[in-house]
Amino acid sequence: MNFQRINALTKKELKKTFREPAVLFMIFLFPIVFVLTFGASFGGLGGSQPVYNIGVVNLDSAGCSGAAQTLIEALSNTTLLHVHVYADNQTAQNDLSQGKVQAVITIPAVFSQSLASYYAAPNNPGGWVNATVLLYLDKGSVVATQAIPPIIQNVLAAFLNQQVAPSPVNVQIASLIETRQLSAFEFMAPGMFTFASIFLIMMVAQSFTQDRENGMLKRIRTTPITPTEFMASQILSYMLIALIQAVLVFAATYLMGFKPAISVSTYILAFILVLIFSLSNVGFGLITATVSKTSNTATGISFLFVLPQLFLGTFVGASLSSTMQTVSRFVPSYYVTDALTSLFLRGASITSPTIILDSAIVALSCVAILAAGIVLYAKYFKI
Amino acid sequence: MGEFAIVIERVVKRFEDVIAVNDVSLKVVRGELFGLLGPNGAGKTTTVNILCGLLKPTSGFVSVGGYGVQRENAKVKRLIGVCPQENAVYPYLTGAENVELFGNLYSLDKDTFKSRRDMLLERLGLTQDARRKVEKYSGGMKRRLSIVLALIHNPQIIFLDEPTIGMDPQSRRAVWDFMEELKKEGKTVFMTTHYMEEAEALCDHVGIIDYGKLIALDTPKNLISKNGVDNLEEVFIKLTGRRIREEI
Ligand SMILES: Nc1ncnc2c1ncn2[C@@H]1O[C@H](COP(=O)(O)OP(=O)(O)OP(=O)(O)O)[C@@H](O)[C@H]1O
Ligand SMILES: [Mg+2]
Q1: Which residues from B are below 8 Å from A295, CB to CB?
Q2: B86–A222: do the CB atoms touch at under 8 Å?
């Protein structure tokens, strides 16, 4: 065995690792970013509990002075809930369909009456006036449908100061009466569109760096094609790829049982949103291609844009901690997934404020990112 | 466009750590086949890149077809055909698809394109393989396809950076014949090579470049007789004291 040779080869290999940014990234930075994002997403950074926004509609005939007010206070006192009081059910349902609250509770007209009857004769169920508290849940959130009902049940039980049935006040989950419960897959489906699109970043970055490496871009530059034409052709290609991708993802999710009952115009808006989002990913791809010398480097660096978007704005981050929910407001994918969830699962209309806001943010960020990508790429590489 | 197809005036190209082209001046008459000779790293490719507008000279001036390359870039691009040194062809397309793409980049109409394509593929011996993916091509085949791409639009001024590198003698001979024909059609050809016999056989004028400096510029015949030697290879040895490269 020749240690001199082994030594030399080992040295060479180590040098390669430390001198090649792509390798360096894949070996060191990628796992770190992965662990950080994954851990932060699912581990609840800083031990902060998720807080659910719930809406309360008080229909109690006794008004604000009655027992319903006390119940609302009891709900507000739990650290798990953030209570918004609505004057009417319609407004509350609107907000629910846009994901602004994760649940809506309606306190019935007979609530105070029911409680009064109970306190008057606690041991005579026959004399009680029965009341039903309706609970509407966010159909777009697996967390809401799983976690909120027990919380409400507990608060109510504590409120009635009674742990065992029978009770004059029953909680009925409205959404589960109206429709069947969504599968875990269906909750994730909107995020899958976003998920697929994100990988365009890597594709674009690799394609541009490869064409640069093998001299194709230079060769193209000796032909009469203008930089604008060239960029337009690239963007057009990736839009087509994104469209095909979205159709394929839709077909696949449909096959897997995702069949949202929504109008054609809603579908069209959903697809347009995905396409605009894809455009911003083309921009990220160009930024990556600008800073990468080789296609290997491009692959590595593209993860910097891929991973945060993946964990903060797709189904991957379905149960984000509240800290990370705040951070997720900074990635475009969050707004796309949010809008798609509202459209597909919560039944939001395409003119509702959340959808308009989400779409506006997606469109603006897209313009900014794409422009930055094109300007940077054109400046440093003249196509 | 005047008498000269290509004018290079006191061109300097400085990269961070090296002067690739050092005060080079030369003129190429229209319809002439000009050869730029020199060893590896002499500055041949850099000169070609400056001429076709890919690189901006640090100082000096170049014009192609009577147009300033920097100032009237779009006009120059329509006149020239460039075959770069590296085999810049799309590996995932077939030969024919590559040709079609470039035909479209030069906005050729269908009929012109078809006759040019068929003629060029035939002349460069690629008709049989036109429907095969380029990634399956041999090096010499890619090289020939690259020449087809450079000529598809019937350009008036042609830049060929080491056109016959990696070709077998038969293919090389075919390319030489083809270049003679281009000259007969009145095309201006600017080629680089380090095959001295190639330059000697083909070129009307040759320039010899070494370390970015143009050290000789004349017809092959004159260079040989002036230096009292038998061939261009010996001219280079005489001028630099080095061999340009081992025999092919
Ligand atoms: N983009 C660049 N950045 C820095 N230096 C460069 C660059 N391009 C070329 N050079 C340097 O310029 C010099 C001339 O290179 P050039 O490619 O023009 O040589 P050449 O004559 O074509 O050689 P060859 O026969 O190997 O193709 C070399 O020293 C090379 O290292
Ligand atoms: Mg060269």
Answers
A1: none
A2: no
With beta carbons under 8 A apart, name residues in chain B contacting A225.
Answer: 105
In chain A, residues with a C-beta closer than 8 Å to the C-beta of B49 are 218
Q: For A263-280, give one letter per residue: b (16+ CB within 10 A) or e.
A: eeebeebbbebbbbbbbb
What SS3 class is residue B158? strand
- Domain ends where: A110, A145, A178? A178
Query: pLDDT for B127-186, tens place per residue?
Result: 999 999 998 999 999 999 999 999 999 999 999 999 998 888 888 888 999 999 999 999
Q: Among residues B83, B63, B32, B59, which one has the least CA distance to residue B204? A: B32
Q: Do residue A332 and residue A191 come from a single domain?
A: yes
By C-alpha distance, the chain B residue nearest A233 is B105
Alpha carbon nearest to ligand 1 atom 12, residue: B20
What integer pLDDT is reported at residue A24 of this predicted model?
62
- Burial (CB < 10 A; 0-12, 13-18, 19+), residue A165, is exposed
CA of B156 to the centre of ligand 1 (A): 27
| Domain with A247 in it | 184-381
State whether B106 and A224 contact (CB < 8 Å): yes
Residues A240 and A350 in one domain: yes
Distances (CA, A) of B158 to B3, B11, B148: 16, 20, 12
**CATH number, position A105:** 3.40.1710
A237/chain B closest Cα distance in angstroms: 15
Q: Whole-structure pTM over 0.90, yes or no?
A: no
**Parallel, antiparallel, or unpaired for β A103-107 and A131-137?**
antiparallel
pLDDT given for residue A32 in this prediction = 63
pLDDT at position B248 over 50: no
Q: What is the mean pLDDT of chain B?
A: 92
Report the first-to-last Cα separation within chain B, whole angstroms.
Answer: 38
pLDDT band per the 50, 70, 90 thresholds, residue A21: low
**A41 found inside a domain:** no
Ligand 2 center to A251 CA (angstroms): 51
